[in-house]
Amino acid sequence: MSVNVQITVQPPIPGVDSNGGCASTSNYVYSTITSFAFQGCYTQLIIECRAPSDVVSLETCFASCKTEGSAMIQPLINDDMFGCRCNAANTIEGIDNEQESGSGAVTCGGNAWFTYTHSADATASGLAKKALRERLVNLRNRNNGGLCPFRSKACQIPYSDTYECIDTTSEFESCGGCTFGEFQPAKNATMGTNCSALPGIVRGAVTCSNSRCEAFACRSGFKLVSGVCVAA
Predict the structure, then answer these.
(1) Under DSSP, is residue 184 helix (H, G, I), strand (E, B) or coil?
(2) If DSSP codes are grouped into helix, strand and coil, which group holds residue 63?
(3) Residue 82 — very low, low, confident or very high, per pLDDT cuts 50/70/90?
(4) What 3-state class would DSSP assign to 182?
(5) How far apart, in whole angstroms, are the C-alpha atoms of residue 227 and residue 179?
(6) Is the pLDDT of residue 126 over 70?
(7) DSSP structure string for 18-48
(8) SS3 assignment, position 128
(9) Regarding beta strands 206-209 and 212-215, do their DSSP bridges make them parallel or antiparallel, or are they unpaired?
(10) Which residues on neighbouring strands pair with residue 206, listed in sequence order?
């Protein structure tokens, strides 16, 4: 007996305030490997645009802004990307708007800017870089001196001089290899596939198994053939 399961992935939903509060039915996600601290949500900011316009993850934006004083991240509605900006200042400067005069703060949600700062000391003394270097050293000491634990690859983080350890046999955004290349490329290294970017797949209806993308639901106009969505 076969059972078809339809999974719906929700886009970012509004919070309950400008300080990152979530409804009781929602979940929080924390990053524990950054020196940046959350400061609130805004729609209008003074932005110096010192980073790529769009990134694939929050970690990528933090890495891009590690030598700056502040980072701003915007979940893009109907997209899997995030807007990313950096400022040299260690404070967030909002522009007045009608919702909260004098601050520019708004309820957190899709298309709002989630703002983060780290201290002037962290920026000036290079604590952000030091934390990343220490993380690299710890990873290098694992598995008899290898960069990553067994079954993981050291995948390059874009716009950064560091990497993250990924199990490319099961990670659907780097399935079968590192999407942006390996940190220390080996000969004949296999480039990974972002399974969610394959044509015809319903959002959230794909996984990575044994280094291979496997879809289980297709959009209209496509049909599922051996885990692949092909034009009908």
Answers:
(1) coil
(2) helix
(3) confident
(4) strand
(5) 20
(6) no
(7) TT----TTS------S-S-EEEEEESSB---
(8) helix
(9) antiparallel
(10) 215
